[in-house]
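Hi team,

Filling in the usual template for the complex we talked about on Friday. All components are listed, including any nucleic acid strands or ligand strings, so the model treats them as one assembly.

SUBMITTER: L.P.
PURPOSE: interface mapping
COMPONENTS: two
RESIDUES: 226
SEQUENCES:
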Amino acid sequence: DTGVSQNPRHKITKRGQNVTFRCDPISEHNRLYWYRQTLGQGPEFLTYFQNEAQLEKSRLLSDRFSAERPKGSFSTLEIQRTEQGDSAMYLCASSLELVLATGELFFGEGSRLTVL
Amino acid sequence: AQSVTQPDIHITVSEGASLELRCNYSYGATPYLFWYVQSPGQGLQLLLKYFSGDTLVQGIKGFEAEFKRSQSSFNLRKPSVHWSDAAEYFCAVGEGKLIFGAGTRLAVHP
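RESULT (copied from the run log):
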């Protein structure tokens, strides 16, 4: 399968614990995005990378959140000191630069976080 | 501010009936517009996209959408709905980073 891969698919944790999600994008895609989706809402942008550079972060991304893409391939999203409000589906997507493509994002199946 | 509005939170149609899902957007420039579908436990799948040219675009699964600049709309249509179309549908706008609407949940009655 050459699509976007995310793991773990589900994570249940206690409030205050740290969690990390991993995303493996489509191999030739140089852009990688993280979104958050809560029940009954559309995906909300968190951050994106072009290669290894993090180019934009949403105000939704508090100091407890950190994302990396160290070699321009896979990415990790870490949430420190989780809170119940962090419970959501975390979606990863990848794409080519606009000059090379028409801007569509290819999404993974998401990582669902439940904070007890 | 850039935004997407999907006025209908939930729509129910009978199988075989026609469907139109509404989408209005606010965007400073000529937008790239998208419709995605999300089935339970599945990732978001692209149905169709508009970025230039013909304002009526065809997508997968028999869906089409029409871009109307004067109305800032990009409504999704299908002439005959199948039970397997039951899912959540998201309209999105943007260049690179996409802004999504809140979604419309479609239920299909047999």
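MY TAKE: The mean pLDDT of chain A is 92. The two ends of chain A are 33 Å apart (CA to CA).

Thanks, L.
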